[in-house]
Write the structure tokens for this entry.
Amino acid sequence: MRYKEQREQVLETVHLAYQADLIRMSAGNISLRTEDDMVVITPSGIKYRNMTVKDISVVDLEGEPIDGPPPSSETPMHTAIYRHISRAKGICHTHSRYGMIQAHLQEDVPLTNIELMMSGAPIPVAPWAAPGTEKAGEVTVDIFQSRPELHVILLRQHGLVALGGSLAQAYEHAYNAEVGLETHYKVRLVQAPQSFTEAQIQEIKDVYGL
């Protein structure tokens, strides 16, 4: 099997994201970029609970199929990010509940907790782009290019996309973002969340060596 190790990595991340309720059914998608610039990505329409390593697809950076079943409908977004954002080695696009809620509220999320800080907050909401289109790739690339420190963005009325220097890192950013977004949203139900001050941000960076 071609790219067996990378396919296993993607499947392992699928299991983690599924268990954490970041993805469900076949909504959301996960990918990694190989050293020879191929993209190993979840397939189209196969339920995560039934997925096996043979179900993971391989495409080139233009999205052309190389091996496996038809790739995710969101392949154009993944490949656009890999073509234009060199720091992206792994991507997790989730339909996590609070990511979706904040994406529907269409409000950028300020830096109000450490989990959001680890995600690169403030987290922006991208302009509308229909899922599965080239435009979905364009709007994400524009934002990630303009903010090199950013790991997570919200897709308007859609979900969340996280990138990392590895697939494991992308998953961590997606997970941390969901925790931070849930906390931020629930605090909003009681009172206005307080953003970190510049002094607090610097203090946290000093403590954690960021």
Observations:
- The chain has one domain: 4-208.
- The chain has a mean pLDDT of 96.
- Residues 125 and 154 are 5 Å apart (CA to CA).
